[in-house]
């Protein structure tokens, strides 16, 4: 990357003196400057992360005289020894923890061992907080750990592995054994036939190896989007609409620049060299880089100003020369569908972006003939991704090429769009993904990249940009709000006969991933069950609100909330146990899905449900005993237990979905893996390497990863739809097999030979004989390796016909969650006591990482069920928008089912999205079991739960 440096502070202000990581430090900045900014921008200590600048997320936590504190809330002048009667304040960042405390080494080892760092953006804050705890209390219990970590938010892990790691590093052996012992037991899975999982063969697949990128996340050296910029980079800031819908007129921009020292340029639509339009789905692309005369959502960009960092930081957007004319806005699905509604886009009649359809059998006749029919209506709202890392990056022009370094889940998609925006061939665009501090789908779309690319191209100098937290929430994509109506029917014996499902999704002002949601949901809305007669119709609807895009499940979580409550209602009406009803109707290897697909193997959903049976019986019995006792004592707490199932197709829907991997043997005996599958915390960098190592027969420690870079790594496709383990993993396996063959050819050895990789040599063991081959003098191939291979895998799928019949996915993941809750009938508050999660993952390539995905998905599902809803224009921060903290997450027991996929690498399937999908409906079903009321508007906030309880009580009085 070359000349990277932090901005140099002005030397005209008085010095501020404090002790930093054991050394006397002097800075010359205004005394009111945030300590977090001084650490990062002046001193280059980027291990301290900034997620909110408001003390809400805790990512910037440091030690100040041994106490954990948010550095974004500390003015650096507060540390000055001259202001403290000569006393020296000591600041310790993650970079200095090793010399500060012996506990840091133990914590680091435990975090690696337990997989406590996923995306890693919160890890420094967690480690600082944990170090402070262990310095003051060497043997904390779980409650004390929760209190210590409560100020640091994590969006990936679900907190349980972090808690386990801190307890393991403490001297409280009993607490550590309880927490960690449970995790170990939970890691023992069940195979497809219900027996204990087979013994893992020698090798690395199936092993709990630490993340290959774990050390960098823990010691603070990992580079995220905001952590680097070339020397002399200007700062960019976007001017955004304050209205949902408005016309606007720009003023004299030349005069504006001339009268604002430090501001170098303003960019608007006419400055886009190529096409002022982009989008993740080419035939639906509709979002401009800069709006031209009309804005369609609050937060839409109309201009960007580039200048010196201090000038941009001091600039107030209200001073920008733009005049607004607010227009009526369509802010609901109902308003957008009204016959007299204006069109958000002139070419999309009725404000309908796309329609989805899957039909099989005769639904109406089957419902008429069913012995029992139930129906429901469900509504969900916008949900914010709340990645702890805001979007950030930089761009620079290199001759006639542009380089963009930023956090992204889809480097090759970004390259294509940036090329079109700049009017360049794709070969002239280089995308360098940084580590991604949480993605969950929102970083599939472009964010900072178009603005950076246009500015850097036009200015011919580097430009950087970091979204503020309000800007990130205001302008980036959300989970689609949904309005769902569904009916299902069954025979008296409990056999499902039909489902009729209709859903509208609010896709907001621009398409983003709206088509994917509308097409994927009808395939999945039946759930993993045999439904012979089926109709699912969906629409993606435009409104004047923030675009809704991809968020862990592409609409399936919303559909599952309706579907799984509907099946509970059917079971109740039939007098059937809810779990046994699902087991009866579960898909199997030979039964057709609602698209007519028959898998022939790898369908482990019945095993998932059966794995819950004994726990279900025990939990329901405990709830009954507790409720009887509480009722007798006039206690308002009621216990409930709910269950829900899920399935999820891995990869694109009925579309090409290839991934390519390249691997090469170097002269030093090490193996380079060109791994372009962006790791957003799920562990693909580790899992794909494990798969490749297993295929070659090489130790993991011999691998050098060449990370995602469109100049250096083949296209591995986007990191989404739970595809990387399955698709990129298979490509890595194929490439590994081919490299092994190439090495054996060089050695003139047979397929049965064993290869040992040494320093600068390989040793071949064949038929009882060993011989060593020096690699230093061997010729290199066209890729620069002694031997290399490249392989592409594209899952076998087929297009769907007009009724949605065909094979949309080669592999599905399956799962079932059981939720145990307590509800305060007087307050409406819901506490989740435990989640038990059984998932068919085909083969657990790395059980620790699989558990981490399950726990993290359960945490996001809990937030979806109980607390998270975004209202555009309100709560654009992490104080008002609530996500689960460590104290909200219960124990999560993971049960790994291994029913091997006939297609995936070593039988593996994806688990990223799958882990979230059944959590919310299981919780909602548990709320019903506890209270007798159904929550149809999600999330189930205390006011909504209490209102339903009161309404049910009033109806009971009337009916009584």
What is the arithmetic mean of pLDDT?
94
- Structural class, by secondary structure, is alpha+beta
Overall body shape: globular
How many DSSP E strands? 35
Helix content: 25-40%
The gyration radius over C-alpha positions equals 28 Å
What proportion strand? Answer: 15-25%
Low-confidence stretches: 1-11, 181-201
Instruction: Enumerate how many helices there are, as a single number.
Output: 24
Order of strands in the sheet with the most strands? 9-11-7-19-16-17-18
Biggest sheet features: 7 strands, mixed
Structure summary:
The chain has 24 helices and 35 strands. The strands form eight sheets. Strands 9-11-7-19-16-17-18 form a seven-stranded mixed sheet. The chain has a six-stranded mixed sheet with strand order 13-23-22-21-14-35, with helices on both faces. Strand 21 (about 480-490) and strand 22 form a beta hairpin.
Kindly list the characteristics that best describe this protein.
24 helices, 22% strand, disordered N terminus, 960 residues, seven-stranded mixed sheet, alpha+beta, 29% helix, six-stranded mixed sheet
Structure in words:
There is one protein chain. The chain is built from 24 helices and 35 strands. It is globular and about 80 Å long. 60% of the residues are buried. It has 960 residues and is an alpha+beta fold. Helix 3 (103-114) crosses helix 4 and helix 17 (556-574) runs parallel beside helix 23 (919-931). The chain has a 7-stranded mixed beta sheet with strand order 9-11-7-19-16-17-18.
């Amino acid at each position: 990357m070359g000349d990277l440096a932090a901005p140099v502070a002005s030397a005209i202000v008085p010095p501020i003196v404090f002790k930093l990581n054991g050394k006397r430090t002097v800075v010359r900045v205004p005394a009111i400057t945030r300590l977090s900014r001084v650490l990062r921008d002046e001193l280059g200590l980027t291990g301290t992360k900034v997620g909110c600048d408001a003390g809400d997320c805790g990512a910037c936590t440091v030690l100040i005289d041994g106490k954990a504190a948010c550095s974004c809330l500390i003015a650096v002048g507060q540390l000055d020894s001259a202001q403290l009667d000569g006393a020296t304040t000591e600041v310790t960042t993650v970079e200095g923890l090793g010399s500060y405390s012996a506990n840091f080494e133990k914590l680091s080892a435990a975090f690696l061992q337990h997989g406590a760092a996923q995306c890693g953006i919160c890890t420094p804050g967690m480690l600082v907080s944990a170090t402070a705890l262990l310095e003051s209390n060497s043997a904390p219990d779980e409650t004390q750990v929760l209190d210590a970590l409560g100020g640091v938010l994590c969006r990936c892990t679900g907190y349980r592995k972090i808690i386990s790691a801190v307890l393991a590093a403490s001297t409280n052996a009993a607490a550590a054994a309880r927490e960690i012992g449970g995790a170990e037991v939970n890691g023992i899975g069940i195979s497809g036939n219900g027996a204990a999982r087979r013994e893992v063969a020698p090798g690395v697949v199936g092993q709990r190896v630490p993340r290959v990128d774990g050390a960098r996340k823990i010691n603070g050296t990992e580079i995220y989007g905001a952590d680097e910029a070339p020397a002399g980079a200007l700062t960019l800031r976007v001017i955004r609409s304050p209205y949902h819908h408005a016309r606007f007129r720009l003023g004299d921009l030349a005069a504006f620049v001339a009268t604002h020292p430090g501001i170098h340029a303003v960019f608007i639509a006419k400055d886009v060299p190529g096409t002022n339009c982009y989008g993740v789905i080419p035939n639906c692309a509709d979002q401009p880089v800069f709006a031209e005369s009309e804005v369609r959502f609050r937060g839409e960009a109309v201009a960007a100003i580039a200048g010196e960092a201090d000038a941009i930081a001091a600039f107030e957007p209200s001073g920008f020369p733009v005049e607004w004319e607010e227009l009526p806005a369509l802010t609901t699905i109902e308003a957008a569908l009204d016959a007299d509604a204006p069109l958000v886009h002139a070419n999309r009649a009725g404000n309908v972006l796309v329609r989805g359809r899957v039909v099989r059998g005769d639904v109406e006749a089957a419902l008429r003939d069913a012995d029992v029919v139930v129906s429901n209506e469900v509504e969900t709202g916008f949900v914010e991704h709340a990645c702890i890392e805001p979007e950030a990056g930089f761009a620079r022009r290199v001759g006639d090429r542009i380089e963009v370094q930023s956090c992204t889940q889809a480097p090759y998609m970004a390259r294509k769009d940036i090329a079109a925006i700049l009017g360049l061939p794709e070969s002239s665009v280089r995308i360098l993904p940084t580590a991604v501090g949480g993605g969950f789908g929102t970083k599939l779309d472009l964010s900072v990249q178009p603005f950076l690319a246009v500015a850097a191209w036009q200015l011919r100098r580097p430009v950087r940009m970091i979204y503020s937290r309000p800007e990130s929430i205001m302008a980036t994509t959300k989970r689609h709000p949904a309005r769902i109506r569904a009916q299902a029917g069954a025979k008296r014996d409990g056999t499902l006969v039909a489902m009729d499902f209709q859903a509208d999704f609010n896709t907001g002002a621009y398409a983003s991933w709206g088509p994917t949601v509308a097409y994927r949901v009808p395939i999945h809305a039946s759930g993993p069950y045999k439904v012979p007669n089926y109709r699912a119709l969906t629409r993606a609807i435009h409104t004047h609100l923030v675009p809704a895009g991809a968020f862990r499940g592409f609409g399936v979580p919303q559909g599952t909330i309706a579907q799984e409550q509907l099946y509970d209602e059917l079971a109740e009406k039939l007098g059937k146990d809810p779990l046994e009803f699902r087991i009866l109707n579960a898909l199997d290897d030979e039964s057709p899905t609602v698209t007519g697909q028959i898998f022939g193997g790898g369908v482990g959903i019945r095993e998932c449900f059966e794995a819950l049976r004994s726990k279900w019986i025990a939990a329901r019995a405990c709830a009954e005993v507790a409720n009887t006792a509480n009722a007798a004592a006039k206690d308002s707490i009621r216990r409930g237990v709910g269950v829900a199932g899920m399935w999820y197709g891995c990869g694109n829907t009925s579309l090409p979905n290839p991934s390519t991997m390249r691997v090469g043997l170097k002269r030093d005996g090490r193996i380079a893996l060109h791994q372009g599958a962006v790791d957003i915390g799920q562990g693909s960098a580790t899992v794909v390497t494990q798969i490749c190592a297993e295929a070659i027969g090489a130790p993991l420690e011999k691998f050098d990863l060449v990370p995602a870079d469109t100049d250096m790594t083949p296209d591995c496709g986007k990191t989404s739809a739970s595809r990387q383990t399955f698709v990129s993993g298979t490509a890595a396996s194929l490439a590994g097999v081919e490299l092994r063959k190439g090495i054996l050819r060089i050695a003139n050895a047979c397929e049965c030979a064993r290869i040992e990789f040494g320093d600068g040599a390989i040793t071949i063991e064949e038929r009882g004989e060993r011989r060593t081959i020096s690699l230093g003098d061997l010729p290199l191939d066209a890729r620069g390796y002694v031997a290399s291979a490249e392989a592409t895998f594209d899952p076998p799928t087929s297009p769907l016909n007009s009724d949605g019949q065909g094979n949309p996915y080669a592999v599905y993941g399956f799962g079932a969650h059981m939720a145990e809750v307590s509800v305060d009938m007087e307050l409406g508050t819901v506490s989740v006591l435990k989640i038990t999660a059984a998932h068919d993952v085909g083969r657990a390539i790395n059980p620790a990482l699989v558990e981490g995905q399950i726990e993290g998905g359960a945490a996001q599902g809990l937030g979806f069920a109980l607390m998270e809803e975004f209202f555009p224009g309100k709560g654009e921060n992490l104080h008002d928008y609530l996500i689960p903290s460590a104290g909200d997450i219960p124990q999560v027991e993971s049960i790994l089912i291994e029913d091997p996929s006939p297609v995936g690498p070593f039988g593996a399937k994806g688990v990223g999205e799958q882990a979230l999908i059944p959590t919310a409906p299981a919780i909602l079903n548990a709320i019903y079991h506890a209270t007798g009321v159904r929550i149809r508007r999600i999330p189930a906030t205390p006011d909504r739960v209490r209102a339903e309880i009161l309404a049910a009580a009033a109806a009971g009085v009337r009916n009584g």
